[in-house]
Amino acid sequence: MKTNNKRGFTLLEAIVSMVLAASGMALVFQGIGAATKLQGAAKELNRTNIVAHNILITADPSIQNNSGITDGIAWTVTSSPIARNRSGAELIRIRVAASASSGRQVLLVTETIRSP
Fold it and tell me: What dotted CATH number matches 11-114?
């Protein structure tokens, strides 16, 4: 009498398990690549925001237009009067537009009062 003691996997089962494992690993690596790309974009946008904020803090409302490049980020400051009261005080709007080399942009706007 012959006994059939099968042990292990067939070749087809081994191939199917390898294909499933490879597909799973491909999805994981694709997710890691996308996360790395998003992290770089967030880092650049954060840097652009910091530069724009620093430019806004130091902006002189009496200067109408100014522009420059700081740490590879191009920026433009514009200030324009919005209103004036009877005593001569002006409400000035200061606008800072900063643009990273990748094209990501940040726009910050504030208003301040300039005394006569």
Answer: 3.30.1300
